[in-house]
Design brief:
Elements (H helix, E strand, L loop, with lengths): L5 E2 L7 E10 L9 E11 L4 E6 L6 H13 L7 E6 L4 H6 L23 H13 L5 E6 L6 E2 L2 E6 L7 H9 L4 E6 L6 H7 L3 E6 L8 H17 L15 E5 L5 E3 L4 E5 L6 E2 L4 E6 L9 E4 L4 E6 L4 E2 L4 E8 L3
Parallel strand pairs: 4-5, 4-6, 6-10, 8-9, 9-11
Antiparallel strand pairs: 1-2, 2-3, 3-5, 7-17, 8-10, 11-19, 12-19, 13-15, 13-18, 14-17, 15-16, 17-19
Helix pairs in contact: 1-6
This protein binds zinc ion.
């Protein structure tokens, strides 16, 4: 497969290698330069190949910290097979602590399958989908709410239909062991998980916390989850007696599950994360502090459910996502 990225990583070699994908970037300050996207491989003999990635969105730090720790901690002798780790997938975005790349404004998780001759973000997406994914049977892509959303820590998988969820994806999303394991319909073909589907991988994502912060609790869930996925994908043997959390299995449906700001202003929430709400219930009020006599605009929930995600920043523009819901499913 043609790619402009190069690496000195030897994908056939046993042991631990930690190096860079060299992403060519000719700029005003470096005519023949490259940007180094960190990559690690931990391999021992024959077995499954699995890709763990984070920093797909640069302002989602839980997965990035967790995978850096995993690279240091994991001894090749502990695995059977091959783990490829890309802890800062959209490296320019991750270095800036932004969701998108400051170089080309690229949102990596809206860029798959990418373009080998495109922008930096498009070249990264193309390398992941066309070079790394074809080697793999499983994908864990660790996201969180980033700076503008806060999630109850969740693992997720995209499915074709909630009536007949693919058993492999259902088992994998439960295996992560987050407080919530949710299923969401296909509908976006530009994500890493869509790329994983195109290449036949079992693809699991996460939404761990967010708000541009990390906490001991979310990092613990992230680290235990990564270990659980190593076991689930068959790279390490399950440790007997380790207590795994049973996830609450939920479904995130389409548009009515999401609450968006109908106008700009200052959003006053009338709910908390984790609340159970009803369709038609007032979610909050958009206040107009700059026009103190103007009546606030109420915003309502469009569906029954549990609030698993909310937007912490108070100021909103028309179209900002304020919250989204999930509903329990018995699967
Ligand atoms: Zn993300």
């Amino acid at each position: 497969m043609s790619t402009r990225l190069t690496t000195d990583l030897d994908f056939d070699k046993d042991g631990k290698q930690v190096t860079y994908l060299r992403l060519p970037y000719s700029s005003n300050v470096s005519a023949y330069g490259w940007v180094g996207v960190p990559i690690a491989q931990i391999k021992n003999g024959k077995g499954p190949t699995v890709l763990f990635m984070a920093g797909n969105h640069g302002d989602e730090f839980e997965g990035q910290i967790t995978l850096a720790k995993l690279i240091r901690r994991l001894d090749p002798k502990q695995v059977q097979g091959r783990l490829i780790v890309v802890p800062m997938a959209n490296f320019p975005a991750a270095m800036a602590g932004y969701r998108t790349s400051p170089i080309d404004a690229g949102n990596l998780n809206r860029t798959f399958p990418g373009d080998p001759n495109g922008t930096l973000t498009q070249m990264i997406a193309h390398y992941i989908e066309e070079v790394l994914m074809p080697m793999c049977s499983g994908l864990l892509d660790m996201h969180s709410g980033g700076r503008t959303l806060h999630y109850i820590p969740s693992a997720l998988a995209a499915i074709e239909s909630i009536d007949k969820p693919d058993p492999k994806h259902l088992a994998a999303v439960k295996a992560f062991g987050a407080p919530i394991a949710y299923l969401v319909n296909f509908g976006e073909n530009r994500t890493s998980s869509a790329g994983g589907r195109r290449k036949g991988l079992v693809s699991v994502g996460t939404e761990l916390g967010g708000t541009g912060q990390v906490s001991p609790e979310t990092l613990k869930i992230a680290e235990e989850g990564a270990q659980n996925m190593l076991e689930h994908f068959g790279l390490v043997e399950a440790k007997p007696g380790r207590n795994k959390r049973q996830s609450r299995v939920m479904y995130v449906g389409g548009y009515p599950y999401y609450v968006h700001a109908p106008t700009r202003g200052w959003f006053e929430p009338l709910f908390d994360l984790g609340d159970t709400v009803k369709a038609g219930q007032t979610a909050g009020l958009i206040q107009f502090i700059d026009e103190p006599m103007r009546e606030p605009v109420p915003v309502t929930f469009g569906h029954d459910g549990v609030v698993i995600c909310r937007r912490p920043p108070v100021q909103v523009e028309r179209g900002d996502c304020i919250a989204h819901l999930a509903t329990d499913v018995n699967l």
